[in-house]
Design brief:
There is one protein chain. The protein has 114 residues and is mainly β. The protein contains no helices and eleven strands. The chain has strands at residues 3-7, 10-13, 18-25, 33-39, 46-52, 56-59, 67-72, 77-82, 91-98, 102-104, 108-113. Strands 2, 4, 5, 6, 9, 10 and 11 form a seven-stranded mixed β-sheet that branches. A hairpin with a 3-residue loop joins strand 9 (91-98) and strand 10 (102-104). The model has no long low-confidence stretch (mean pLDDT 95).
Amino acid sequence: QVQLVESGGGLVQAGGSLRLSCAASGIIGRIYAMGWYRQSPGKERELVARIVSGAGTTYAASVKGRFTISRDNAKDTVFLQMNSLKPEDTAIYYCVMTDGDNYWGQGTQVTVSS
């Protein structure tokens, strides 16, 4: 049974930082891509950052320079360091891991107050 467990969300003031973590268990194949998406009320889910083996990282333009994605392959864990947070970063953040199939976390709420 595949399980992705996210942690690190919460409430922070604008300009603050949070670090999200997502640890996977039960994925049998080689995980070649890990990423973070987010969804705000009334909006579609959007890519925040993605890291692909052999291909590097991709960031949404709105977070470039403020967010950093990293991974610990040995632990099947992906991180998202979020600095200089803005109210518009408020959303539910979902991690996803891919071994050919996509596996999603349950989501963690990030709220940035002004």
